[in-house]
Structures are given as structure tokens and as C-alpha cells.
Amino acid sequence: MTDAAAEQEDRPDGQSGRLLGMSEDELLDLLSRGDLAVRGRLVDASNATMYCEISLDDVAAACVYKPVAGERPLWDFPEGTLAGRELAAYAVSRSGGWDVVPPTVYRDGPFGPGMCQLWVDADDTVDLVALARRTDHQGLRQMAVFDAVVNNADRKIGHLLPMPDGHLYGCDHGVCFGTDYKLRTVLWQWRGKKLTSQATAALRRLQESLDGGPLAAELAGWLTGEEIEATRKRAALLLEHKVHPFPPADWPAVPWPPI
Ligand SMILES: Nc1ncnc2c1ncn2[C@@H]1O[C@H](COP(=O)(O)OP(=O)(O)OP(=O)(O)O)[C@@H](O)[C@H]1O
Ligand SMILES: [Mg+2]
User: Is the dihedral of CA 74, 159, 83, 67 positive or negative?
Assistant: First the structure.
């Protein structure tokens, strides 16, 4: 067993400790209670997206803070907030065991309440365009299933965050959970292919958490009842057909720009 695998087995919460050597719950505590200091604004971002430092006691980390007050209204997502949808995506990622979304909390900040997400140090030697086209990357394939269940309308290449240890995170899940089929992604390479056993296991965990577990109540803080029901139906449909979804029309629905 490798050291990393041994560490993963040892951790009580099942997290690998790849993020600052801290557990998911420790990171959530840091993000929730830490002092949030804005260090800069991500200039390419279409909403107010701040790069910040978060510090608590003697621990400091980088994070992204997106205040609700900085959100541009979107006609197709009139309910709730983009920040809340990012929280809902985090909750789904955790419940299914996908671990696609870095630790994320909802909290107050210098520009009012918003989402605060740990900044993960992606491996900048990875060619993201080549990564997005791979058909043999299990983390990428799992992300495609996660996107299908949350109905992600914005899986761009730049929203892929490959870690040095091979794990893949994603970011920018503000336009997920629409009730209409709006999957827009660069990851169509598995369309019509059979879901892997890991994918069906993750979808079942999600179903259990939605039906008997705490997830539905958690999502109710961020999404409408219809959106939660639509999420339930997407999970059920994926499990019924056991294939990766097809694009809505003749041509794959890809976000623009795709990067
Ligand atoms: N948690 C994170 N860890 C590491 N990098 C991140 C994280 N969140 C965002 N980024 C980086 O910052 C970029 C902009 O963030 P994000 O896409 O979330 O903002 P946005 O306001 O929605 O931007 P846009 O509208 O341009 O997509 C991402 O493409 C990614 O490179
Ligand atoms: Mg973005």
C-alpha cells in the first residue's frame, strides 16, 4: 500500500488529507470561522469572484469568496442564488462520495453573505485541453456523471482542477440544478456508454441520502422543491438506463467559450 493510500485508510472521515493535511470537517471549520481577507479579484470572472486568505488561529489558506451581492441575475435561474447552488453542488458531491467540489461553506464576508470555497492548488503542468478529451480518466468520467445529476450548465475546461496526486476537482457550480435539461459540458466523450460500477454506486449513495438521509433537508436551504425533485429524477433515470446521457440536440451542448 502506498503512503497516500495508508493515510486515506487511517483518516476517520475517509478524506485523503490532500488538502493542507486537514480533514474535510477541519477545513469547513476554517472556512466558516476564519478571518476572511480579500487579496484580489479574479478578473476574467463574470460575477464578483474574490481570491482571499482565510485564517484561524495559526492556520491560513487561500479561498474563493463569491458574495451574493455580486451576482448578475440570470433569466434561467431566477430562484435562489448562485452561491446557494454552489453549496448544493458541494452537498451532492459529498453525499455521493464524488469529492468533486472543494470544501465550500456559506458565510458572511466583507461584501456580505456568499459562498466561500477552499482554493485548491491545481497542477499547472497538466494540459487542460488534453485532459478534457481523455477517455481513460476515471476521475473525469466520474465528474461527467456528477455533472449529469446536478445538471451542470457550465462545465468548461477551465473549471477542471487536476491535483498533483491525480485527484480531480471542479469549480464554478453556480448554474446547476435547473429543472429543464440543460447539461452543457466539454465532457461528452462517454455519451451513450454504460455507467461504471463506481458511478452506479455513487448514484445509489446519493439516492439513499436524498430519500432517507439528511440531503433533502440540506438542499432545501438552497434549491426549490421542484429542483430537488428534478435532481431525484435525474439520479433515478441514470440508474434506470445505466448509461451516460446524450446531449439535448444533434450537436453536443458545449459551454461558450469552452475554456
Ligand atoms: N476552489 C478553487 N480552487 C482553485 N481554483 C479555483 C477555485 N475556484 C475557482 N478557481 C479558478 O478561478 C477561475 C474563476 O473561478 P469561477 O469560474 O468559479 O468564477 P466565475 O465568476 O464563475 O467565472 P466565469 O464566469 O468566468 O466562469 C476558475 O476557472 C479556476 O481557474
Ligand atoms: Mg467560471
Answer: negative
Residue 46 backbone dihedrals phi, psi, to 5 degrees: -85, -20
Contact 103, 118 (CB under 8 A): yes
* Domain locations in the chain as residue ranges: 3-241
End-to-end CA distance of the chain: 37
Q: Pocket of ligand 1, candidates 19, 47, 64, 173: which has the most ligand atoms within 8 Å of its Cβ, to mutate?
A: 64
Look at residue 226 and give its three-state secondary structure.
helix
161: left (phi over 0), alpha (psi -120 to 50) or beta: beta
pLDDT digits (tens, 9 = 90+) for 201-226: 999 999 999 998 899 999 999 999 99
Residue that has been written with the C-alpha cell 487536476 in this structure: 162
Listed in order, strand segments (DSSP E) in the chain are 35-41, 50-56, 59-67, 104-107, 114-118, 160-162, 168-170
Specify the ligand 1 atom closest to the Cα of 48: 21
User: What nine digits make up the cell of 117?
Assistant: 470555497
Residues 198/100, Cβ–Cβ less than 8 Å: no
What's the whole-number mean pLDDT along residues 61-72?
94
Q: What is the DSSP letter of 63?
A: E
Position 42: which residue type? Answer: L
Which tens digit of pLDDT belongs to each residue from 38-59? 999 887 666 789 999 999 999 9
CA distance 25 to 31: 10
| Any ligand 1 atom below 6 A from CB of 179 | no
How many residues does this entry show for the chain? Answer: 259
